[in-house]
Amino acid sequence: MIFLSSPFRRAFFVIGRAARSFSALGRWPVFFRCIAAQHLIYLCIMEAQPRHTFSKTERLKSRKLIEALFRSGKTFQVFPFRVFCLWEPPSGVPVQVGVGASKRNFKRAVDRNRIKRLMREGYRLQKQLLEKEPGGLSLRVFILYTGKELPALPLVMEKMAVILTKLRPPEPRPLPPDA
Questions:
Q1: The overall pTM is greater than 0.70
Q2: Rounded mean pLDDT of the chain?
Q3: What is the domain extent for residue 11?
Q4: Position 75 pLDDT exceeds 60
Q5: How far is CA 63 from the centre of its chain?
Q6: Are residues 8 and 70 in the same domain?
Q7: Other Cβ atoms within 10 Å of 23 Cβ, number
């Protein structure tokens, strides 16, 4: 079985002697030639799943933005996380997220890094819950881990889902009727 990927993100699984037509030179690996000799052909086209990424532009790194977020952002808590969020006028990136763990609770950098890695993974896999509104404001979020013990991934995933549903954009206020 050979895995070929196209620019259209489709996976092609090809087995059999007809697969030789894909290569004009016939330079297939030895194991493929053995499979091709069985005179079977299967061609399955599968849609690839959406990519869950957490790019550099989505990461909240600017010290100025983080300070503004802590100074004037709104705060809520979903134990063991404290979330700081700030809705701003639209900018280049619709959502930026930062994560952190306290040095007071976790002396070893290895533990803090693991917690941050789990939090980023929880966000990355579930960020589609945070729908981007078309008239959109930009959202800045910083998530702090406030627990005293190392979390497990299922706990982080569960709590991150709750956090992301709470982070939905504020509802536009209806204008008061003219009297």
A1: no
A2: 76
A3: 2-47
A4: yes
A5: 22
A6: no
A7: 10
